[in-house]
Write a structure and sequence with these properties.
Radius of gyration: 29 Å
Oligomer: single chain
Membrane topology: Multi-pass membrane protein
Helix content: 40-55%
Protein name: NfeD-like C-terminal domain-containing protein
Subcellular location: Membrane
Structural class: alpha+beta
InterPro entries: Membrane_assoc_protease (IPR052165), NA-bd_OB-fold (IPR012340), NfeD-like_C (IPR002810)
Distance between the termini: 75 Å
Strand order of the largest sheet: 1-2-3-5-4
Shape: rod-shaped
Keywords: Membrane, Transmembrane, Transmembrane helix
């Protein structure tokens, strides 16, 4: 196997590692593919087979050691941007009509919403500031 063949084989290996990446969506295969591309570059510049294998191993392991924990951390985090109904939970509103467990009206984020009290024995009078706990349909549950 001459030098030209070595870099071609490394690129074939990179493509072969890219196929399971697409099929299984396991990013580790992509990291091994990048290692194979790095080894192909070393082979293209005339590096020895031992150096090629070392570059493949070092680049692949380094990517797995660095990128995988970062990806796992990002996967476990909740999105920081809440939109729609999720963005309204936890916000404050002002009571426009008396709100009790049967209903009432509040002004929430510049809009008028129907609302009801989370605590069935509690009523909120006009002008009080309340916290939105949940949104059920078009009704804000407040406390």
């Amino acid at each position: 196997m001459n030098d030209i063949d070595a870099w071609v084989w490394w690129l074939v290996g990179a493509v072969a590692l890219g196929i399971p990446l697409v099929v299984t969506a396991m990013p580790e295969f992509g990291m091994f593919a990048v290692g194979a591309v790095a080894a192909a570059a070393v082979a293209g510049f005339g590096g020895d087979v031992v150096i090629q294998v070392l570059v493949f191993a070092v680049v692949s392991v380094a990517l797995i050691a660095v990128v995988r924990p970062i990806a796992a951390r990002h996967r476990s985090q909740r999105p920081q941007f809440a939109s729609g109904v999720e963005a309204l939970k936890g916000r404050q509103a002002v009571v426009l009509e008396r709100v009790d467990s049967y209903g009432g009206r509040i002004k929430l984020a510049g809009e008028i919403w129907s609302a009801r009290s989370l605590d069935t024995g509690r009523a909120y009078e006009v002008g009080e500031e309340v916290d939105v706990v949940e949104i059920e349909g078009a009704t804000a549950i407040i406390m």
